[in-house]
Amino acid sequence: xxxxxxxxxxxxxxxxxxxxxxxxxxxxxxxxxxxxxxxxxxxxxxxxxxxxxxxxxxxxxxxxxxxxxxxxxxxxxxxxxxxxxxxxxxxxxxxxxxxxxxxxxxxxxxxxxxxxxxxxxxxxxxxxxxxxxxxxxxxxxxxxxxxxxxxxxxxxxxxxxxxxxxxxxxxxxxxxxxxxxxxxxxxxxxxxxxxxxxxxxxxxxxxxxxxxxxxxxxxxxxxxxxxxxxxxxxxxxxxxxxxxxxxxxxxxxxxxxxxxxxxxxxxxxxxxxxxxxxxxxxxxxxxxxxxxxxxxxxxxxxxxxxxxxxxxxxxxxxxxxxxxxxxxxxxxxxxxxxxxxxxxxxxxxxxxxxxxxxxxxxxxxxxxxxxxxxxxxxxxxxxxxxxxxxxxxxxxxx
Length: 398
Ligand code: FES
Ligand SMILES: [Fe+2]
Prior knowledge:
By secondary structure, the protein is an alpha+beta fold. Helices cover 24% and strands 25% of the residues. The chain contains 11 helices and 18 strands. The longest helix has 25 residues, at 330-354. The structure holds FE2/S2 (inorganic) cluster and fe (ii) ion (FE2). FE2/S2 (inorganic) cluster binds at residues 95, 97-100, 116, 118-121.
């Protein structure tokens, strides 16, 4: 949610949120209701996921003119369409006749018109109504009045963001500093060579909070600790719109893989620091970008219920890597698949633990400052504050 005037506060105890917003070191996690109450989840769907920018996929999924794809966005869905002019457009995924979805969520089409599957109303790729059987010449019916509802869409470093509210300021304004950080990796140039779709029985915020700390790494990630020192993490200063940090690779390790070797090629834009570190960033509300010396891993979270989240995970490599004879992305995919499953297992256990009546918000360790940044962002959003306005910094930690 970026530069959006949130008008209603979430149905959650403000006294608990005040504790989450205390200074780092004295704060607590979000109230338990944030993870288990369907009413809070419904509020989030409306205000975080449909109330501003959220990530609905990758540009590569809608690359060619005529490509169409429907994706969830909050309680509704959006239809993404690449026009003949190469421009990506987003429409509310609901027919102007009687509301049928133009495509089922997750489905794709490739054709030079948008055709409703119910009574075949036909729209151009730019959303204008072209044909409606039986309406031709009917008095008072003008096709110009019945075009699809277009929504703001942005392609940002190979990711697609849609603003279902139609009221947010441009996403690039809010993410300019992050853009500079990401630019050397050229994610828009990379090619997805690995993909896993997961579903975790955990709230989307538990997954995000887990992503933001390596305090758990020595306990549950032996493979990760072999290649990256779990205490090496540093976080970027608080920013509006995103939270993140970086970790070092151990000496002799080229990337995050089971033995630390890379079977790809280093990304061409990286300096010496980029070749020795991995950057982990979360663009609110639902995308996790992990920037490695030789590949970019993207997790897109799609909340399905208060205690259930779909996770689309992709691994993208330089085109030069894919041209190597016998190139196999498995070295990266396997490493993170193991690590992902360790994480989802922990997150699902947190979800079950928080379902206990006895669960209460706990304190944050010194290594959980990025969790603090995320939690305070969510808490401010719950209170109805426009947390992602350009130039609005999250509170400092420490
Ligand atoms: S609902 Fe789409 S054509 Fe009738
Ligand atoms: Fe983890």
